[in-house]
Amino acid sequence: MNGGIHLFLYYAIFDFDVDGINISFPDLEGTYSSGSDMQEALFMAQDLLEGWLLLAEEAGKAFPLASTLEVIQERFPNRFIVPISINLELAREKHFGKPVKKNFDYPSYTLLVYLLLLC
Predict the structure, then answer these.
(1) pLDDT tens for residues 35-71?
(2) Rounded CA gap, 80 and 23, in Å?
(3) Per the confidence metrics, is the pTM higher than 0.90?
(4) In the sheet where 7-17 sits, what is the strand order?
(5) Among candidates 100, 12, 104, which has minimal Cα distance to 50?
């Protein structure tokens, strides 16, 4: 596995197109997504990174080392580079966590009002 480390940062390339923003992570094979605007692109990039790392972890694969910003800039000159970070422990809970059961206390008159509405 990836030895107790929970925080990961990889650089994404955002390519602007007439249809929106195309997203890729050069260090992670086969990672492509898109968003209609910057807010959605950032959300999709984080979701893509979480999903890729969780699937790799589930398959027992080691995560590739993240390139430095300098290396990414050299490989992709004049491109919009965005650092995307995730907490893998939180991502696990988000995607695989158990449903949370909530109990609520209602005032006693709530049942009376409910029953009166049914009649």
Answers:
(1) 999 999 999 999 999 999 999 999 999 999 999 999 9
(2) 10
(3) no
(4) 32-35, 20-24, 7-17, 80-87
(5) 12
